[in-house]
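Field notebook, page 338. I keep forgetting to write these up properly, so this time I am using the form the group agreed on. The chain and the ligand, magnesium ion, are recorded exactly as supplied. Prediction of the bound pose follows.
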Amino acid sequence: MTPSAPRSHSKDAPKSHRGHLKSVAEELGSRRFLFVTGKGGVGKTTICGALALALAARGKRVLVAMCNAKERLSAILGTRPIGHDIVEAAPRVHAVNILPERALEEYGAMVIKSNTVAKLVFDNKYVSAFFRAVPGLYEWSMLGKAWFHTTEKDRDGHDLYDVILFDAPATGHGLDMLRVPKVILDVVPPGVLRRDADAAWAMFRDPKLSGVVVVTLPEEMPATETIELVNAIRNELHLPVLQTIVNGVLPQLFTDAERTELMRDPKLLEVDAPSTSAGQPLGALVAGARRAVRERVQVESLDRLKRTIDLPMALLPFLFDEASTAQGTRSLAKHLGG
Ligand SMILES: Nc1ncnc2c1ncn2[C@@H]1O[C@H](COP(=O)(O)OP(=O)(O)OP(=O)(O)O)[C@@H](O)[C@H]1O
Ligand SMILES: [Mg+2]
């Protein structure tokens, strides 16, 4: 890895038909539905924003769908707040923050074919009872709506969106969400709900149309949890995992030998070392030793991820000044091939 530009692919990254290394956007852009998941706070929404810009730069029409989130995508893209009604957040990039109650009402209106009746049936008083009565309906109201957008056509009969980026809830809940179409297939009697869950499940299982993108950090615990997550998605759900994105990668300031040298003196790594050495020349050594530890952990975590899960792995740099800004998101989009 070079200090200023983390590689965006492992050596096993897919190649295009022209033989050049495919960018993440090029590799993922042929899919209709991408499920972006990972542990809380690792950068899923940031990456949805960056990937949306990268795909849009390649001419794709993208919809980013969030699930009842404390919405931060608007800051990440530098646009106005994003609610339950779809907005255009950037050229060719649309976004929505799906509210389960509103989504259920809309679904009801489609099935019953009357807004007025649906409003009565799915009145707020009853909605929570519906959610309790049908297992998975709460999650499906959001995932199903996001999937439904893959079926929408424009006036000329073309797909309204080429790619839906589903900004899934953090790990545990994300997995619950992916289980839902199957739960509906297992428990709900034949009807519209089951027909749609069936169609969605068929799409989610087809690696040419859909797949999971796992976001993680180059640290010990997130790497371990990511390996578990990928195994669970593959072994339990049998869904295709397409890509790992390691976010927040630090440039390497030291060689491995220098790291070993800096980490040799345990005093430099004591908890109070930064405060006791502040303002003295020793302070620089303490900072160096700590940085060496972080770099070592990063190298080991990346190595472990590469060895354990056989997936294309993209690395995105840690943004020191531009995190959560439109400019920072554009620079991440470039790393993804935008
Ligand atoms: N590459 C990066 N460099 C520096 N900071 C980053 C980077 N990516 C994300 N962040 C910061 O990390 C925090 C979490 O990012 P984000 O909201 O995208 O994560 P998330 O996985 O969507 O979180 P949640 O699980 O809460 O939805 C934000 O403050 C964001 O600005
Ligand atoms: Mg998020």
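OBSERVATIONS:
- Residues 24-251+310-335 form a domain with the Rossmann fold fold (CATH 3.40.50.300).
- DSSP finds 14 helices and eight strands in the chain.
FOLLOW-UP: compare against the apo run.
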